[in-house]
Write a structure and sequence with these properties.
This protein has helices at 17-28, 37-45, 49-55, 62-68, 70-76, 78-102, 112-115, 131-142, 146-167, 184-201, and strands spanning 6-11, 32-33, 105-108, 122-128, 180-183. By secondary structure, the chain is an alpha/beta fold. Strands 2-3-1-4-5 form a five-stranded parallel β-sheet, sandwiched between helices. The chain starts with 5 loop residues before the first strand and ends in a 5-residue tail after the last helix.
Amino acid sequence: MKSNTIITIGRQYGSGGRAVGVRLAEELGIPFYDEDLLKHAAKDSGLCEEILQSYDEKPRSFLYSIAMDPFGYAFGGLNAASTLDQKAYSATFDTINRLAEQGSCVIVGRCADYVLREKDNVLRIFLYAPMERRIETVMERDELKESDAKQRILRTDRGRAAYYEFYTTQKWGAAGSYDLCIDTSVFGEEGTVKLLRHIVETDFNK
């Protein structure tokens, strides 16, 4: 593996993206960043972690801004909300760049593939799976009935797509936005990790 290799993972909800990322990072012996990336962003920017969480892979959360600061919103209008939105966006993206400079790692979501698009040491992955398989996964993992699992999948994927497409010039989940797209239902978690590890350890060339 190259001395500084970054693997970014975009993923459909229920496709096993986080589990694959965790296992891949463990096997490669490199850091893994998902929700905990927000802790780093909060420390770097001085913003409250709860605020960053409210914007995490969600597009322009104006209602949250109003709830947090109704007087500021009243005097500032939409600009007050959009300023907080922009700060959260910038803090997350700056942190992704900083973590990538520190060394090899796996980063899940948060437009990391786009943020690091100018770097040639980044492998940009998108993981997906058929809806039926994802419903089964979410039902078992989150202890939900079928209809609730499907709604959670649709809602989460809509949010991720809207966030990605708002802040980038690319289509979320489209093959052209990534180096490799993998159906995890074909390879399974273990097979997907094995495939990605092989690609990384053979010093992929883009």
